[in-house]
Write a structure and sequence with these properties.
Layout lengths: L3 H11 L2 H29 L5 H23 L7 H21 L5 H4 L1 H18 L5 H23 L8 H28 L2 H23 L1 H6 L4 H27 L2 H7 L3 H12 L6 H19 L8 H28 L1
Helix pairs in contact: 2-11, 2-13, 3-4, 3-9, 3-11, 4-8, 4-9, 6-8, 6-12, 7-14, 8-11
Length: about 350
């Protein structure tokens, strides 16, 4: 039996330029996340305990760059400010918990973040966005998680770095996944229905405000103990640049595919970390890393090629839209009535 014909037919019908573009974009986002994790771990190794400060620089540049574009456009916000405040708050907490985890655990343990976030995202998108997943998509997601499990297994068999208090670090990471999943799902909804640039800008604005409040409460004493050096400044600059690129590119994947595909793509961030281990630390890599990378890629292909364009449930979308614009509509009616009364 000739298998070439059905294979070629399946490939042409499922693997499109959009799929390849989405996979490439996902890996680009994953690479920037790996850079962010590397610089965050480097800052922790240098003895700096200031997770909120790290994120504050990122939010500042997001607000500065994209806020300038919004001011140039002179357009009103399409989403009520309190939704952006909530989105910025949960995003800051996710960054705070995960960056704090580097003080107690290794990069290997922090990669648990990707696995746990996927579970929360699937549940949240199912409940709140009405996303329905096929068995093939769930199989692809399971393969991606299996690949990450092999990475953790290979690290557990050798010197994974340990950390001073790995259990506390793992708890912080798992708690951070809840906030990240909530942030991803909220961002997915807004970038698909509203303005992508506005969403990124408002995350920066309100993320910076929340970070400023928490920084003044939690990290002023930590600043006094830091012995600033060129390496520390370069670490902060590298973190800000890589995370800025992450927040810039992430909405494209969220808009084209969704929060689940976005987090599945981020699983390969640990594979990119292998490149940093080889280039900067000259460490040997376990063969399971390469097997894991292959399994994750297969899982991503299965998920992306069986994905359908699914829209949120109309009832949920209408309720959120009505809630967002109720106050704005009332203001518009009041403004149009005022001249006629005079």
């Amino acid at each position: 039996m000739n298998w070439n014909a059905p294979i070629n037919s399946w490939w042409r019908s499922h693997v499109t330029l959009r799929t390849l573009y989405l996979l490439f974009l996902g890996q680009l986002v994953s690479f920037t996340l790996a850079l962010t994790s590397f610089t965050s771990s480097l800052i922790a190794d240098l003895g700096v305990d200031a997770p909120v400060t790290q994120s504050a620089f990122t939010y500042f540049f997001l607000a500065l760059v994209y806020g300038g574009v919004l001011l140039y456009r002179r357009q009103r916000l399409r989403v009520a400010w309190y939704w952006y405040l909530l989105l910025g708050f949960v995003d800051v907490q996710g960054n705070l918990l995960v960056n704090k985890a580097y003080q107690f655990s290794s990069i290997t343990s922090v990669t648990l973040l990707d696995c746990c976030t996927i579970a929360w995202v699937i549940v949240l998108t199912w409940l709140f966005l009405g996303t329905r997943y096929s068995l093939w998509q769930l199989l692809g997601a399971a393969l991606c998680v299996l690949g990450l499990g092999l990475v953790l297994l290979s690290d557990a068999g050798g010197d994974g770095g340990g950390g001073s208090r790995p259990l506390l670090g793992d708890v912080l990471v798992i708690a951070g996944t809840i906030f990240f999943a909530t942030s991803n799902v909220g961002e997915e909804f807004f970038v698909k229905k509203k303005d992508r640039l506005e969403v990124v800008c408002m995350i920066g604005v309100y993320g910076l405000l929340v970070s400023a409040v928490q920084l003044s409460i939690l990290e002023l004493k930590s600043w006094e103990s830091v012995e600033w050096s060129t390496n520390i400044l370069l670490g902060f600059a590298g973190y800000a640049a890589s995370s800025f690129m992450f927040y810039t590119l992430a909405p494209f994947v969220l808009k084209l595919s969704g929060a689940t595909m976005f987090n599945l793509s981020l699983l390969t961030a640990d594979m990119w970390a292998v490149v940093f281990r080889i280039c900067f630390y000259h460490q040997k890599v376990h063969w399971l890393y390469f097997l894991a990378f292959g399994i994750v890629v297969i899982g991503l292909i299965i998920y992306s090629t069986t994905e359908k364009d699914l829209n949120p449930m109309p009832d949920l979308e209408n309720r959120i839209s009505d809630l967002q614009y109720q106050i704005l509509d009332n203001e518009n009616v009041a403004s149009t009535n005022e001249p006629s009364d005079s």
